[in-house]
Amino acid sequence: MREIKREELIDFQIVHMDMVGDIYEYREKIIRIINKKFTKHTRRLLECGGLIEELVKNGLFIETWISDLYDVDADIILEHRKISTKQHYSQWSFEMMKDAAMLVLRINSLCSKYGYELKDCHQGNIIFDGIRPIWIDFGSIIKKQDKNSWIAQNEFIKCYYLPLILWSKGYDKMINSLYKSSTNIDFEEMVSVNFCIPPVLNSKVLSVIKNRYENLSVEKMYDKIKSLMVKKKTFWGKYQDSYWDKSNERFEYEIDWIIRQGENIKSMVEIGANQGVFSYFVAKRTGVKKIIATDYDQNAVDAMYKKLKHEKIEKITPIVMDFVWASSDILQNCQSELLVANALTHHLLLTQGMTIKAMVEKFSNLTSKYIMVEFMPKGVNKAYVPKWYTKEWFIKELNKKFEVIEVNNSVKGRVIIIGKKKSM
Hints:
Helices cover 38% and strands 19% of the residues. It has helices spanning 39-46, 51-57, 94-113, 153-168, 172-180, 187-194, 202-214, 218-227, 249-261, 277-285, 298-311, 328-334, 345-351, 356-366, 391-398, and strands at residues 2-3, 21-26, 29-34, 64-66, 69-70, 77-80, 116-118, 126-129, 132-135, 141-143, 267-270, 290-295, 316-320, 336-341, 367-375, 402-408, 415-421. A hairpin with a 2-residue loop joins β8 and β9. The longest helix is centred in the first third of the chain and has 20 residues, at 94-113. The protein is globular, with a radius of gyration of 24 Å.
């Protein structure tokens, strides 16, 4: 047994609400220091006849084992497999949220078979490992309180069931704002929106509807969620529909460069990835082991996610992210050894009005080694191009954070620029 050095624990929890035990990063490991009051509960759960093993075997729960680490304040320390890609559930697309919801129902159903249940089921207990949602909270599994009901059913309805129904009806901005907020989603307001109930009638109507939701069977909720689809179209949602059939000249140039770097590039993040076609080709043809593909268009990310699931490409984690407004923490969570931005910078600079200084600074936050970015000399849709918008100006500004090592002008209407991050 090796005793933990408390000063080396990295506490990444936003709030400490888990009575079973706090979770930390320790020497590149993820550990959970179990509260002594829950030693018996933990041992019973680990030895109850195979629940944790079955959850892990079915890809529903993070791989977990008793650590050989020791702490004077705990009788048991658990260790979890580390998932390197961090994301917040507000970065999930509709299909990702659907799969997260169905994961919760599957886990609770399996727990019930062993006499257990989930006491809470919010999205903060789930993380996507590539294309697979995985439950990561050991402390939320408790002995079943009532064999005829689920203690967290109302929370499930508030966090998943009603939001997904509203999202499918086109209220995506409202639901995404709720998911980004730290405020709890309000059941009554969602019911009022869903059924178009005037506020003055709420008191009489809501009790009837609330009772109907509280008595929904798990099977009915699962089937309803599975059948939901987003009908609202987005501007960029189908942009790469025709790209999947074959690669193109500029992709070939970039992929060849990545292949030549070999083991020097193990991770990549693509911003403005749309449906993730370039990331898909990188995953299929290079040695890059981990890829994060981001776009701000929900439907494009949905299309990417469904394609990756169908092809069983697990190297890529799709994320909904608006690069312009992304915080430094969000960017840091996505940082990789290579940043790719294809056919994007002209939109950032000329359409969205982002300054090149801010853009390059954010680029720098996203990569630890290299950048691969396209400059579009003709601007956006051959519209008016300002005099200052030139290749030379772009490279000069990029050089403030990156040493430009390759400039390729061979593809008509595009300049591919590759740079190496300068030491800070």
